[in-house]
C-alpha cells in the first residue's frame, strides 16, 4: 500500500511540475513552437522503487499556471532553440484530501518534437514522506497531444 500511496502523490505533483514548466518560450524565439493544449502523459519506470505512475493529462498553456498554484520551487529552463526543457524542481506531495504528506525532487529533461507533436524524456524522482519513507525512480515520460 505504501508504494501505491507514494506513486499516486508523485503522479499529482508531476502534473503540476510538467504543466508549469513546458509552456515557456526561449528568448531567441527558438525553432520549436511552445507546446499548448491537452497531452496524455505516459510514465514508464526504468529503475527504482517508487513504483508505476498512472497516465496523466497535462493541459499546457503558453504561460502555464503560476508556480504558486503548484507549490513547486526550483529551476526550469528552456534551451535556445525552444525544444528542450530542463527541470530541477521540488514539489510537495499531497494525499487525496490535499494534505501535504512529503516532498519530491524532479530532475531531467523533456524534449519537444514538432514533427510528431510529442514531448518526451527522462525524469528522475526522489520522494520523501513526512514519516521518513523514501524512494527514488527514473521514468521515461512520453506525452502525446490529444
Key words describing this protein structure:
146 residues; alpha+beta
Structure, explained:
The chain has one domain. It has 2 helices and 7 strands, in the order αββαβββββ. The chain has helices at residues 2-21, 67-70; strands spanning 37-48, 56-60, 73-78, 84-94, 100-113, 118-129, 134-145. It has a 7-stranded antiparallel sheet with strand order 2-1-7-6-5-4-3, with helices on one face. The N and C termini lie far apart (32 Å).
Strand count, sense and barrel status of the largest sheet are: 7 strands, antiparallel
The backbone outline, from C-alpha atoms, is globular
Mean pLDDT: 74
**Helix and strand run:** HEEHEEEEE
- The side-by-side strand order for the widest beta sheet comes to 2-1-7-6-5-4-3
The total strand number stands at 7
**Uncertain parts:** 19-28, 63-69
Distance between the termini: 32 Å
The total number of structural domains is: 1
Structural class comes to: alpha+beta
The proportion of residues forming helix, as a percent range, comes to 10-25%
Question: What gyration radius follows from the Cα positions, in whole Å?
Answer: 15 Å
Tally of alpha and pi helices: 2
Beta-strand content bin: over 45%
